[in-house]
Structure formats: structure tokens, C-alpha cells
């Protein structure tokens, strides 16, 4: 059992993210899959070069707040808030076994979001505790501010 599963002691289940939907779907890349065949910093820099704002999203498929956030990605308010961004999704359990980005960036809760610059330095951090409730109406304004800063 990973550090995060022990820390949050939640039950495991699977979740899927909206991806490839027509009409303004949130752009997501699941790191540690064939979608991300390059190191994280190179992927971040490629997103900047393409004119998008990369947001590193630390998630866990067993965490209820992550499931709620990912379900909210189908809502137009979140699609609009993330229109200029790409969510680079890192599963913390896989990450802890492979590269340790969560540990390196002091991630202690999920969901956690990081904006990193082209040199890998932290610009801004956000967690699920930054919004009042796990509803699109409460999440979207916080996410919009995070992406635009």
C-alpha cells in the first residue's frame, strides 16, 4: 500500500476522465501512459511552446475528491476555466513507484495542482481545499484564477 493510500485510507476504485469529447473538452494528458512518452519537464515545455498553460494535476483513482473533480470536468464552467490549459495528470501511486514528482514538489494531498515554469520551478500551487465545495460552481472560479495567474 502506498504512502498516500495509508495517509488517506480510502477504498480503491477506478475512475475515468472525460477526454476526446467534442465541443471544448478539457485537454488532458495522463502521464505514465503512452500519451506522455517524454520526461515531465519536456512535456511541460512542449505545452508552453504550443501556447497552452500546463497544469500538473496530482490525482489518485481511489480518492473521492479526485473522482468529484474529474466528474466536474464535464461541466461547461470547468471547460471554460481550463480552456487555455492542459491538465497533465499524474497518479500519485504510480508516481511514488517511478519518478517521485509528488514527493519532490511536497504534494501532501490530492487533488493537488501545480503550475511550473519552463525551468521546473513552482509558480503556483492549488489543492482541493482551495474551493468551498466539490461542485463545478465552486471549483470553476478558483481554477480559472489559478490558470490565469
Walkthrough of the structure:
- By secondary structure, this protein is α/β, with parallel strands linked by helices.
- It contains seven helices and five strands.
- The longest helix is centred in the C-terminal third of the chain and has 13 residues, at 136-148.
Task: Please describe the topology of this protein.
Layout: H1 3-8, E1 27-30, H2 40-49, E2 53-59, H3 64-72, H4 76-81, E3 85-91, H5 92-97, H6 101-104, E4 112-116, E5 122-127, H7 136-148
Parallel strand pairs: 1-3, 2-3
Antiparallel strand pairs: 2-4, 4-5
Indicate the CATH architecture: 3-Layer(aba) Sandwich
Q: Which class best fits the helix and strand makeup? A: alpha/beta
Oligomer: single chain
Query: Mean of the pLDDT scores?
Result: 85
Shape from CA axes?
Answer: globular
* Strand coverage percent: 15-25%
Radius of gyration: 14 Å
Structurally, how many domains make up the residues? 1
How far apart, in Å, are the first and last alpha carbons? 36 Å
Strand elements, count: 5
CATH topology grouping: Glutaredoxin
User: How do the strands line up in the largest sheet?
Assistant: 1-3-2-4-5
Query: What profile does the largest beta sheet have?
Result: 5 strands, mixed
At a glance:
This protein has helices at 3-8, 40-49, 64-72, 76-81, 92-97, 101-104, 136-148, and strands at residues 27-30, 53-59, 85-91, 112-116, 122-127. The protein has a single domain (24-148), classed as Glutaredoxin, CATH 3.40.30.
Amino acid at each position: 500500500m502506498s504512502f498516500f493510500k495509508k495517509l488517506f485510507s480510502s477504498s480503491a476504485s477506478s475512475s475515468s476522465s472525460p477526454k476526446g469529447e467534442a465541443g471544448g473538452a478539457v485537454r488532458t494528458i495522463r502521464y505514465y501512459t503512452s500519451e506522455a512518452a517524454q520526461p515531465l519537464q519536456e512535456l511541460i515545455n512542449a505545452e508552453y511552446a504550443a501556447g497552452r498553460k500546463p497544469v500538473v494535476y496530482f490525482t489518485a483513482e481511489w480518492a473521492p475528491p479526485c473522482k468529484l473533480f474529474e466528474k466536474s470536468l464535464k461541466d461547461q464552467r470547468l471547460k471554460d476555466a481550463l480552456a487555455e490549459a492542459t491538465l497533465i495528470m499524474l497518479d500519485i501511486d504510480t508516481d511514488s513507484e517511478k519518478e517521485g514528482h509528488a514527493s519532490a514538489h511536497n504534494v501532501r494531498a490530492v487533488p493537488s495542482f501545480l503550475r511550473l515554469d519552463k525551468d521546473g520551478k513552482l509558480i503556483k500551487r492549488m489543492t482541493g481545499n482551495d474551493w468551498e465545495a466539490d461542485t463545478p460552481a465552486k471549483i470553476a472560479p478558483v481554477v480559472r484564477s489559478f490558470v490565469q495567474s
